[in-house]
Every structure is written in C-alpha cells, then in structure tokens.
Amino acid sequence: MTANEQTAVAVLGLGPMGRAIAATLVKGGNPTTVWNRTPGKDSELVGLGAVSSPDTASAIDSADVVVAVLGDHASVHEVLDPVADQLRGKALINLTSTAPEDSRELARWAAGHGIDFLDGGIMAIPPMIGGPGASILYSGSESVFQRFRSDLEKLAAADYFGTDAGTAALYDFALLAGMYAMFTGFFHGAAMVRTAGVSATDFAPRATAYVTAMAQALPAYAGVIDSGDYTQSIQSMKVHKPAFDAIVRASRDAGVALDIVGPIKNLIDRQIADGKAELGLERIVEDLSGSGK
Q: Residue 279: what pLDDT?
C-alpha cells in the first residue's frame, strides 16, 4: 500500500452504530464495503460511495481489515464461523458489545484460524462517531492497532490497553456501569421532585451542575481505594448513614420506589453491621469485589 492509498474496510453489521462507522470511513476516503444480514439498510451508504456486498465472503475478500459491528457475541460467531477461511491472514476488529470473557474467547478463536484480532469498546452513541468526544477503547493485537490506527482515529479517539483482548471490554462495561448508575440516579431524583410539581427539564440543569461538581471527588476516592486504608476518607460510613437514611425516607414519603436507592442503603447498612462504621464510604468496593478486606 502506498502513502496515497487508503485502507480498504469491510463493515459487517449495519445497525445504527455500524452505519455510523461505515459512513465515517467512506467520508474519510476509505474504500468501504458493507454487508448486513437483513437487506435494505445500506442504500444511504451506497449513496455516499460504499459498496454493497451480497455476502460476507465477498465483503471480506475486498478488504484489508474487517470490522464486525453485530448484535451480540452469538451473532459474531453466526456470521464469522462460516467464513473463517476467508478471514485467515486478515485483520479482524470486533466492535460488537461483548463481555470481556467473550472477547477473550473470540481472540482464541481468531488465533486458531490465523486471524489477527483486535477487540474494541465503543464509548459513544452513533451520532458521535467521527466527532469530538467519541472514544473507542482497544485491546488485543498491537500490530493491528498500530497498522490501522490512523483509520481508527477517523472514528473516535483510539486508546490501546494491551494484548489481553478482554481488557477494552472490561473498561467499557466498568464505565457503562457508572454511567447507568448516574442516569438512574437522575431518574430517581426526577421522580422525587416531580411530586412537588417540578419538571425533569427544570431539574436537569441543577442535577448536571451538581453531578459534574461531585465527579471531581473521584480521584480522591480512587486514592483511598488504592491505598486500602479506609481510615483516610474525608467522611466515615457512620456520617453517610443518617444522610442516606433520610434520602430513603424522603423517597418513601414522596411515593417513589426504592429500586435505585434501596440497594445503596443495604450496602451502607451492611458496612455498619460488620463494624466498619468508622471507615470511609469507599470501603464498599471491598464488599462489591468480595475481598472481605
């Protein structure tokens, strides 16, 4: 490939994310072949300049690198197992949402078929692809990451986390866990203030400002967790308990279900019952990880 040639890419799977990835690659000048199990999702991409492939084997043959953006781990095998021979010697990048152990299984499968495998976790929604703020985390084959890095950076900021193919997925789902906890915490708060006639729209700016400010405490929490010395926390568990009990009481009085805050109260109560009242809230990490520390 000369300096003026662009990487030829095959994108397998044209859900919203697959279409966004394919469109960004086409606009970035990459010869892009697209395939989807259900026909009819590629017309806009073809209009942009992508080539529609009737089958996966043809798509793979046209490409330097194959990008799988499929429904789940099972779909990856359903689509790729029959074309493992065509993939031999190719670079395969899996951007399907797969659990870390599934990513590692795919890496072993790929190695057994002579396929160079890189796994990725997408930290973005489809409209963000190709724009600022989008990030994709990668792990697995370093050679694939380095060889195609300039192409990957057309999609999003690209960060590499080492040769263990499951690491990117682990980061992905760890970050998503925090995101969903934040979202559902907001939903709980919106349900509370709604009982006083406050709209979610009015509540959102105040919640955004508060959560953004509180997020600045994460590095300090992280330092305590990594030290393992929970006596160094700013506030002990016994300080948090009455505050959280009041949150639960206020929620109950407002008629808001405790599905979100109830489990957090249970975690705090368990720390207190186990004699950890003088330790920091961060000590919950030890219960969650089952370390018993």
A: 95
